[in-house]
Amino acid sequence: MADAMLSLNNVESAYGPIKAIRGVSLSVMKGQIATVLGSNGAGKTTILKTISGIIDPRKGSIVFRGEDITALDPTYVVKRGLSHVPEGREVFPLLTVHDNLMMGAYTRRDRDAVARDLEAVYAYFPILKEREKQDAGLLSGGQQQMLAISRAILAGPELILLDEPSLGLSPKLTRDIFEIVVRINRERGTTILLVEQNANMALNAADHGYVLENGRIVMEDTCERLREKDDIKEFYLGMK
Ligand code: ATP
Q: Buried (b) or exposed (e) across 134-150, using 16+ Cβ within 10 A?
């Protein structure tokens, strides 16, 4: 596909004998927010870890910006413009907020652009500016999620992989964070692949969606159309 920034072709990944994803094919178009919906254990995190090189797939290929990145080292993948916001945030608790953000920029040499990105994330999340000298371990869960997203932006990415940003957050905080994620996409042009159990939030934020069940993609459509499907209403949106 001409405008696909990322494509997975028939990707299979496993943990020992346990196949977590079984022949997953999907595309993320440049400038879009794409989402993978699925319940607990469906394989969402495994898809993201396989894309960013944390897990080597058993089969299939991954193409990012025209280059085959299948099983490449994560450091290399980051340099090519892909940053991963992991499930559970994984901030460095004993480093300050500012130093966590600078860790995101460690592969960059363009100091002026890094300074501009730092100002941009402080504008999206002013609380991080207020707390920039505090240890990240002292932040609330929501603030740590903001920090993890901001750290990913400091890597200067074309594509952000976002693993379950709503995890453990109140509905209000989840809404606030999704609103900023959409602004980051619209204002900075950053392409986003979001995996979520919170189908309602994900379908409102994203353009295109995939539904993952037991490691397989079982449905794909625009989010507008997915929201109208009876199966999605019943099983993912809790509507009759
Ligand atoms: P969650 O929302 O709970 O993170 P998920 O959709 O992201 O779920 P994965 O974490 O990708 O799902 O897990 C997919 C499958 O692989 C599950 O059956 C899970 O038990 C298994 N799995 C995940 N990590 C490991 C691991 N390190 N070792 C063995 N099995 C694992």
A: ebbeebeebbbbbbbbb
Q: How far is the CA of 47 from the centre of ligand 1 (A)?
A: 10
Whether the model clears a pTM of 0.90, i.e. scores above it, the answer is yes
Neighbours of 237 (CB within 10 A): 16
d(CA 172, CA 184): 19
Q: Using the mean position of ligand 1's atoms as its centre, give its distance from the Cα of residue 62 in Å.
A: 20
17: tokens are: 């004998």
ipTM of the complex: 0.94
Strand pairing partners for 34?
193, 208
Does the beta carbon of 44 lie inside 6 Å of ligand 1?
A: yes
Q: What pLDDT digit, counting tens, does each position of 18-33 carry? A: 999 999 999 999 999 9
What gap in Å lies between CA 153 and CA 156, rounded to an integer?
A: 5
Angstrom distance (rounded) from CA 132 to CA 101: 9
Residue 17 CB–ligand 1 contact under 6 Å: no
Does the C-beta of 2 come closer than 6 Å to ligand 1? no
